[in-house]
């Protein structure tokens, strides 16, 4: 028979990883938030394709490793379109938050790998399947 203290210790040790996950880092927070923003923007475009204000918003294809992303975020927040759309206001709030995190709190944790502004305008589509000729 196992003593109660050993059993309790075993249960506590087995449950630690699930109970206390590692806190998010600045980098992981920026990456997660940029993906949320991009996804929400694409959803907004799909849900409101005929809405004139959504059509004229600057595109949001974010890559936090591209130096041009800071200007892209500023342009989106400063865009005068869609002043009275709740979804766009919420999205602009997230964009402001990401800009503040990148420019202030996590400035030292971020490494820019490129400054190709056209890559943010015309992103390369991500493929999920195997390359052609392979299965």
From TrEMBL:
Highest taxon of the lineage: Eukaryota
Keyword vocabulary terms for this entry: Signal
Biological processes, Gene Ontology terms: positive regulation of transcription by RNA polymerase II
Signal peptide: 1-21
InterPro entries (alphabetical): CYTL1
Annotated Pfam families: CYTL1 (PF15153)
Name of the protein in question: Cytokine-like protein 1
Organism: Marmota monax (Woodchuck)
């Amino acid at each position: 028979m196992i003593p109660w203290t050993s059993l309790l210790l075993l249960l506590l040790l087995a449950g630690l990883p699930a109970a206390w996950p590692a806190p998010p880092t600045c980098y992981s927070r920026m990456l997660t938030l940029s993906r949320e923003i991009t996804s929400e923007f694409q959803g907004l475009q799909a849900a409101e394709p005929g809405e004139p204000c959504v059509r004229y918003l600057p595109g949001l294809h974010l890559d936090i490793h591209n130096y041009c992303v800071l200007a892209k975020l500023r342009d989106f927040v400063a865009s005068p379109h869609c002043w009275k759309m709740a979804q766009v206001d919420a999205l602009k709030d997230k964009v402001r938050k990401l800009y503040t995190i990148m420019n202030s709190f996590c400035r030292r944790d971020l490494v820019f790998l490129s400054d190709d502004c056209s890559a943010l305008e015309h992103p390369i589509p991500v493929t999920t399947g195997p390359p052609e000729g392979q299965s």
